Amino acid sequence: MKPILFYSSLVLYLSAGIFYLLQLVFENPTPGKLAARLTFLAWLVQTVMLGIHFSKVGYPFLVDSSSSYAFSAWVTALVFLLLNLKYRFQVIGMVALPLISVFFLLSLFSSESYASHATTLTHSPWASIHIIFSFLALALFSLSFILAIIFIIEEFQLKYKVLPKIVLRLPSLQVVEQIHAKSLTVGFALLTGGIISGVAWAKSVTGVYFFEDARQLWAICAWLIYAFFLQARFAAGWRGRKGILLSILGFVVILFTFLGVQHS
Fold first, then answer.
1. Alpha-carbon torsion, ordered 8, 9, 10, 14, to 10 deg
2. How distant is the alpha carbon of residue 245 from its chain centre?
3. 20 to 30 Å CA-CA from 111: which of 12, 91, 171, 259?
């Protein structure tokens, strides 16, 4: 990836996060408007960067973790921009923008590559499909985690009648929970696609659908937790804190799967 474009987009994302913070501190809408523009500009720069990168490396895409995490940052920024456009989630930008920056740092320092395992891995038609689904799911689950934390903080402050300025600028608990559930539903569908395409990838390379791969097993564990969350919410009527805490557990497993587990 182009270093100039990479660092330019990172600096723009960090600057946007600072301006979102300044908006809250000084209760002035001007920094928030500037932050939204900087976020969009950073996303455009990163779009160009990824476009140039993918045109150079060709198929298969995202076979190294560096470009995969950069892709997750791009998706997270896009989803945040769309949410902010509809719901005016400017306060959440203080958390979303640092998260995007974390993805950039993971992209900068991560060196895992599927190509290092075997050349046949990356030649499978399922390779990029699996990786795209997986990192799209990671981006959605990360945003849902932010919403879950905001829900818990806002609920605590409302319950104990602690109403700082940040709560007055947040959407209602009902709106936060609804968007949280929708993002988890989409993330769950993407994770399902990632697991199915990963199984097909394993079959095309090893001849078996499942093999002793730690990341594959942990991904299935995360899928089961999120499946239980969705079943509990839509069938058993779980709302509020119980469902939120369960989704946080699922995110911890997902994070461990991506960051703490290597392919066998």
1. 100
2. 18
3. 12
